[in-house]
Amino acid sequence: MSGLFGTLGVARSALYAQQLVLQTTSNNVANASRTDYSRQVVDLTDSVPETLSMGQVGTGVTAAGIRRIRDSFLDRQYWQAQQALGEQTASQSTLSQIESLLGEPSDSGLQAQLTSFFSALQGLQTNPQDPTTRSTVLEQASALADGFQHLSTGMQDLKTNLESDINQKVAQINSLVKEIGTLNGQIKTQAPDGGPTNTLMDQRDSDVDALANLVGINRTEQTDGTTVITLAGSGGFLVYGTDMQTLTAGHGANDTYTVALNGVAVTPNGGELAGTLSARNDPNDFVKYTQGRLDTLAATLIEQVNRIQASGAGLAGLSATQSEYAVSDPSAALTAAGLPFTPAPGSFQLFTYDASNAVTGSATITITGTTSLNDLATQIGAVTGLSASVVNGKLSVTAANGTTFRFAADTSNALAALGLNSLFTGSTAATIGVNSDLIADPNQLSTGIVDATTGVVAPADTTSAVALSQLQTAKLLDSGQASIGDYYAETIGVLGTRTAAANQAVETNTAITDAIQNQRQQVSGVSIDDEMIQLTQAQRAFEAASRIVTVTDDMLNTLINVMT
Amino acid sequence: MRITQNMLAAQILTDISASATRMANDQEQLATSKRINQASDDPQGSSLVLQLQDRIGATQGFQNATSATQTSLDTASAALTQVSDVLAQARDLATQGSSDTTDGARGVLANQVNQLLEELLSQANTQSQGRYVFGGTQTTLPPFSATRDASQNITAVSANPLGINGTVNVQVAEGVVIQANVPGGQAFTQSTDLFALLISLRDALNNNDTANIAASLDTLTAASNQVTAMLGAVGATVQRLQAIATGNQSDLTRFQALLSQTQDADIAEVSINLQKDQTAYQAALESGAKVFQLSLLDYLQ
């Protein structure tokens, strides 16, 4: 209405409006330190004007709504950046842990242990009969085996940790998804109104920010105010309005740990979850790559050393030996019996000796394409003074009292393949050990060789010792390109390059994410200075409006009292 | 462009963090004196460091093997020189004995030859560090043993059949395996049996058998040549070992220099960087603190 009462009404609307502005400003200030808060502004518009004969007259101000300042384009960019950052962070974390476990270059890592072992072998060739030199070789071999096992255990622990990390992330994702679903429901109920939805939307956006870091997602807005969140790459939805699906994690085939959405296997694309899954499962990188390289290194060392040890001669002959590796079927051909190292058709010599080390018998044991472990036991058992049996897929050879035996000239690699008269036990980095028979009697360490025709052993012969020491520089790996040291150095180099790249990627992605966050803050962040000015404005406007009330009140007073 | 307090805070934090990280890196390099503390600091450098450690270990092993072999061959060489001497003296005695002298005089010569025979046996059984130098591949038992008659004179010398001709090989450099011993059979009994020679000379002198004395003289000449040739071969091997030892040493020096170059931190450079980064860190802290304290609230009453 017009007139003085109308003016009061106008002033009143101003007071209400400025109070609302004050409340909003104070809300902004209260939440100023939160980075996930979007500042709110009150949209003030003209009240519906009065139409008079002279034209329209303003009736004051109304609050059209309280608006949340948020740029959804920047939000989208931020989520994408977060996904990349999350994935790289997970990669970097795993690679760092692997790097720290291997601890190279150093004076006490695996390389140092390999060097010490080979040094001991070199010492053996100038002093083959010295008991201390022999013991040293076995001690260094034990230390090296321990080194391999320690790294393998570390890798296994890392795998387990990655699995529990995946579980944790899946739980976090599920809990965030639940929150978002609940918020969707609440927003949908209150969508027609303004006001409180701002807070709910902020909360929901903050949850989506956290979710984007964990797993790659795509988000679309529905017309009823709810959002749909789907997994990037696979299309399955996590949240659809108030419907939610959960992720589960568990062991998959081929030593993997996989994630499923509502029972269907998925491969997340981006986010920390994708990074951690990759770290756990990728056969050519991270844990599996490192474990694979260590296993190859250990297996090569074991086979090559055992090959020389088995058909070499120590200072004492054997009174018994048992094969290290079991066959899957004692009646199957050795060449296809599931042994970790493969024999080939060939033969080896077997000599027996009496108590004064005189040769008492000899035999040529032949391995053909069809010879089985049982056949081998029969052949060996036929030699006077020896008995051979197969127990649990392993061959056991025992000499009669007063008799010893030795192997020589193995062209079939069967001795190393079965692990007879071996130095190293096991066939992988996790299982490598030292034959306890040798530790008990270092005289059985092969330094010399048995004469293949006469069976005679000369105690100061260094043929096996020289062969062992040549293993350090022999190109045994990478199809004859790399020695043992080269292969390990290559592994460290590759891991180092990947770790450095991951470090760089994290740095770059962090910078990108920070820049986008900066822009978001620019748009939605609360500036104290801004709010203070707003506050001052509101205060002055309020004062002015109150003044108008006072003046109008005076006028009314004049009208009422003067006109009596 | 709007700037909010949170943006300022975030910026200051990032910058201080970056400064602190640089400082921590410098500090680590100074504390360990190494430029490479993890493989990711320099992946190719790390790979090279590991390979060098491997090579240095191998080369040090070669050095040990070379020097042990040199010692053993030097001992063999000294013994063979003595043997050469013995044979020269035997030649003199044989020469004297083949000219016309009385029986008694030949008896004296025979005694001297007997002494030379004992000396020869002693040299053949030379030990070095508890091992018989001429034992071949059997070095814990004497390679040559004598059968003696009632008056303790040697009637025959036999060689230990196991290993007397055996060769002992040693790897002294990458791909270089050399024979590190002088087998007793080769030196003392192969082609010319030096013991049999001296025994027959002594017996011939005792029996005034001028024909055999003359025959011995001829054989002694051949024997001397054999030992001289052997000495020559050993000498050549010793020289070769010397060259290999020099090569090993220069390899070792080269590897160690390269290792140091790759992995060591330049202390002077790192110290200066640390100083610089410390100053930058301080500046970041100070300026951050100052900027952060200003606000409109200070000026509104």
Short description:
Chain A has 564 residues and is an alpha+beta fold. Chain A is built from 13 helices and 21 strands. A four-stranded antiparallel sheet of chain A has the order 5-6-7-8.
| Helical coverage of chain B, percent range | 55-70%
Shape of chain A: rod-shaped
Structural class of chain A: alpha+beta
Number of strands of chain A: 21
CATH topology of the domain at 70-172 and 180-231 in chain B: f41 fragment of flagellin, N-terminal domain
Number of strands of chain B: 6
Envelope shape of chain B: rod-shaped
Number of helices of chain B: 7
Strand content of chain B: 5-15%
Strand content of chain A: 15-25%
The class by helix and strand makeup of chain B works out as mainly alpha
Tags for this model:
heterodimer, A: 564 residues, alpha+beta, four-stranded antiparallel β-sheet, three-stranded antiparallel β-sheet, 13 helices, rod-shaped, B: 301 residues, mainly alpha, f41 fragment of flagellin, N-terminal domain, two-stranded antiparallel ribbon
Structure description:
The complex is a heterodimer of chains A (564) and B (301). With 564 residues, chain A is of the alpha+beta class. Chain A folds into 3 domains: 100 residues; 133 residues, no CATH class; 276 residues, no CATH class. Chain A has 13 helices and 21 strands. Chain A has a 4-stranded antiparallel sheet with strand order 5-6-7-8. In chain A, helix 2 runs antiparallel to helix 12 and helix 3 runs antiparallel to helix 11. The model of chain A has no long low-confidence stretch (mean pLDDT 91). Chain B is mainly α. Chain B has a domain of 155 residues: Up-down Bundle (f41 fragment of flagellin, N-terminal domain). Helix content of chain B is 68%, strand content 8%. Chain B is built from 7 helices and 6 strands, in the order αααββββββαααα. In chain B, the strands form 3 sheets. Chain B has a two-stranded antiparallel ribbon with strand order 1-2. Chain B has a two-stranded antiparallel ribbon with strand order 3-4. In chain B, strands 5-6 form a two-stranded antiparallel ribbon. In chain B, a hairpin with a 2-residue loop joins strand 5 and strand 6. In chain B, helix 1 runs antiparallel to helix 7, helix 2 packs antiparallel against helix 3 and helix 2 runs antiparallel to helix 6. Chain B is rod-shaped. The mean pLDDT of chain B is 90. At the A-B interface, helix 2, helix 3, helix 11, helix 12 and helix 13 of A face helix 1, helix 2 and strand 5 of B.
